[in-house]
User: Which sequence fits this backbone?
């Protein structure tokens, strides 16, 4: 199905040769031909053509027989694309022209009737909207799979602890499930952005023609109904010139790719000998060609690395659209490759990330040791002082002093002589053992967004409800 290279462009397949004496230069044609990438829109283009044939029939441009023959030819054309036998020619400029050329080959003069009442400008705007709506839907499904893997791991490991970090330094202990669900909610907003983009893309543009609307009495609402759009675009110039739907998809895709990248980075860290929090399953690990012992988290690294190209896709389209006057400009042909690339990249990244997460085996002992160490209960001690009437500023000082003592003694807060703690402030006593217990510290954080077990269970229920919806 791949279009053949343009050798010399004859006029036969072009849609616009008549007013020119000479055909395009080879270099000009090579720059302009888009079948190499827009072939991908064949199904969306044919859907638009079916709707258009229906409208031409309704207004009498096609009689019953012509309409039936055109519909049948469009079906045959779709079959040729689907089974890979559609042959592009070197003089097909784009997918729209190639399909018209195919119809003329197949039907003769009748094949040329479909061009009435439309332009490639509204055709491509329509095709791209249809593609983007589908891309939003399938990307959201990919995000749901990653969220599902996180929720499953959170549920299966509800008893495990983890160090909650800031600045990549241990801060306060949390449940591992709380940490995993943090990624779940970030991804949920990523899915929400794609869903918002899909809603705004849900607007039909056929009937806009080149830019001003049509003299033929074609009904924009009929196109919307036939193609599954909820609304009709309010303005024909906007309809053919706008690419903000594509930009919005790419923005949502880039933000999502960056979320995935951050998760990838977390997995890379966890799987180092230095952290040792988790092991990535064999199916998502790779070895080294020289170091026999290696077990590398390449897939998580690629998830991280692929975000770069999706961000690039967004920047590319923003840059393409930035200086364009109304309405259609050929620069807009450059919108498709970034959109396809971002959709394809996420199609690769999301299942691989979901699989990597599902394959993780956590080391509960190392996680617990890391959660408990690093003076991670210093805040709890300071807040206990606050409960006993001390200003936080002073409490911070007192506990900071105790941390220094512990550090000097090569121990943690729970290793200091209780008498020393009791001496540190008049409100303190030796009875702080419970305060310096990690589990107790976690259970104290029992507000709805905290890390206490009951809160995390409730969060999991909420997460499940999102996935079931
Ligand atoms: N291949 C073109 C694109 O992708 C289709 C629209 C061409 N319109 C035109 N006026 N040359 O944007």
Assistant:
């Amino acid at each position: 199905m791949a279009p053949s290279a343009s050798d010399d462009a004859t006029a036969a397949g072009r849609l616009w040769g008549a007013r020119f004496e000479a055909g395009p230069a080879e270099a000009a044609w090579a720059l302009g031909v888009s079948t190499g990438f827009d072939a991908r829109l064949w199904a969306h283009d044919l859907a638009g053509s079916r709707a258009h044939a229906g409208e031409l029939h309704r207004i009498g441009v096609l009689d019953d027989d012509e309409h039936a023959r055109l519909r049948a030819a469009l079906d045959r054309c779709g079959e040729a694309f689907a089974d890979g036998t559609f042959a592009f020619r070197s003089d097909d400029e784009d997918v729209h022209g190639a399909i018209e050329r195919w119809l003329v080959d197949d039907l003769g003069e009748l094949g040329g009737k479909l061009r009435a009442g439309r332009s490639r400008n509204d055709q491509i705007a329509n095709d791209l909207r249809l593609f983007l709506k589908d891309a939003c839907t399938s990307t959201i499904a990919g995000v749901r799979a990653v969220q599902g893997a996180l929720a499953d791991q959170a549920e299966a490991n509800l008893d495990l602890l983890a160090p909650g970090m800031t600045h990549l330094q241990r801060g306060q202990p949390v449940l591992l499930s709380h940490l995993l669900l943090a990624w779940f909610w970030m991804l949920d907003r990523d899915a929400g952005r794609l869903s918002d983009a899909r809603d705004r893309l849900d607007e039909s543009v056929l009937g806009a023609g080149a830019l001003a609307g049509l003299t033929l009495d074609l009904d924009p609402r009929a196109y919307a109904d036939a193609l599954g759009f909820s609304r009709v675009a309010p303005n024909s110039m906007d309809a053919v010139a706008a690419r903000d739907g594509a930009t919005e998809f790419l923005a949502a895709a880039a933000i999502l790719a960056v979320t995935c990248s951050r998760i990838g980075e977390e997995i890379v860290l966890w799987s180092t000998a230095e952290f040792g929090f988790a092991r990535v399953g064999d199916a998502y690990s790779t070895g080294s060609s020289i170091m026999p012992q290696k077990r590398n988290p390449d897939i998580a690294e690629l998830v991280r690395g692929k975000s770069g190209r999706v961000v690039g896709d967004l920047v590319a389209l923003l840059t393409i659209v930035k200086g364009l006057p109304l309405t259609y400009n050929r620069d807009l042909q450059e919108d498709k490759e970034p959109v396809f690339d971002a959709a394809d990249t996420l199609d690769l990244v999301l299942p691989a990330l979901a699989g990597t997460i599902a394959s993780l085996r956590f080391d509960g002992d190392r996680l617990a040791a890391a959660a408990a160490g690093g003076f991670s209960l210093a805040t709890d001690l300071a807040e206990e002082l606050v409960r006993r009437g001390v200003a936080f500023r002073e409490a911070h000082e007192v506990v900071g002093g105790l941390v220094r003592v512990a550090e000097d003694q090569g121990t943690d807060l729970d290793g200091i002589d209780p008498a020393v703690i009791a001496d540190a402030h008049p409100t303190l006593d030796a009875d702080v053992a419970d305060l310096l217990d990690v589990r107790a510290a976690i259970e104290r954080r029992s507000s709805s967004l905290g890390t206490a077990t009951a809160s995390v269970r409730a969060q999991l229920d909420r997460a499940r409800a999102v996935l079931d919806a």
Notes: The longest strand covers residues 169-175. Confidence is low (pLDDT under 50) at residues 1-10. Residues 34, 38, 94, 120-121, 124, 328, 330, 332-333 surround arginine (CB under 6 Å).
